[in-house]
Design brief:
nine-stranded parallel sheet; alpha/beta; about 20% strand; 10 helices; binds pyridoxal-5'-phosphate; about 220 residues
Length: about 220
């Protein structure tokens, strides 16, 4: 695959779904990838990247921020409250807000740093015990708290469907929930299922291996 192939597959998925072209964004998931692959994708002009660990993201991107001012960094992995300060400092978008305590900490840090971060609420659509994300039935309350009380810039919903299930019903559920909440963005779809996600309304897909090649180490989350 590679960047160009993924982008053109995204464009044809938009077309097949009867959607306007260039309406779905690509978050290139660079976690665990070797530096030379990341450099190659930067050289091709891509500027939106996703990472799932704060420390790894700091190591990789802090210096590059100066070199590439248009960089947009998304945190797509679980966030511990003790990492909120560096996460708010580094990331433009935090996609994994899934509990009140974390939301409160992000709001406080954003105020302290005088910074606005975009936030997605991560929903555990498969109701998996070990998986991050707010339960479907608790999500409306969390969205409400984040928007109205904490004044976070909540832009959408994010989900990772269970690996052993058809992702389509999960994407459909997430799309329905976002619509009900009046949230415009949907972060769904990875290397294996992004075309389905685009058909079901994704506004951004998070793609790692199809852009960069297979990851050598395993990366949790
Ligand atoms: C690793 C990861 C991805 C990308 O996975 P690929 O299958 O390599 O495309 C997307 N989203 C999240 C949350 C991830 O952790």
């Amino acid at each position: 695959m590679g960047l160009e192939d993924v982008l053109s597959a995204m464009r044809s998925a938009e077309g097949k779904a009867g959607r306007e072209g260039y309406t779905v964004g690509l978050v290139a998931v660079s976690k665990v990838q070797p530096e030379e692959r990341v450099e190659a994708v930067l050289a091709e002009g891509h500027r939106v990247f996703g990472e799932n660990r704060v420390q790894e993201a700091q190591d990789r991107w802090t210096k590059r921020r100066e070199q590439y001012p248009e960089l947009k960094l998304h945190l797509i992995g679980p966030l511990q409250t003790n990492k909120v300060r560096p996460a708010v400092a580094l990331f433009d978008v935090i996609e994994t807000v899934d509990r009140e305590k974390l939301a409160r900490k992000i709001a406080a840090e954003a105020a302290a740093q005088n910074k606005t971060v975009e936030v997605f609420i991560q929903v555990n659509t498969g109701d998996e015990a070990q998986k991050a994300g707010v339960a479907v039935e608790e999500s409306a309350e969390l969205i409400e708290l984040c928007r109205n009380e904490l004044k976070l810039n909540v832009v959408g919903l994010m989900a990772i469907p269970p690996i052993d299930e058809d992702p389509a019903p999960h994407f459909a559920l997430l799309a329905k929930m976002a619509k009900e909440a009046g949230l415009p963005k949907l972060s769904m779809g990875m290397s294996g299922d992004y075309e389905i996600a685009i058909a079901m309304g994704a506004t951004q897909v998070r793609i790692g291996s199809a852009v960069f090649g297979a990851r050598k180490q395993s990366a949790a989350g």
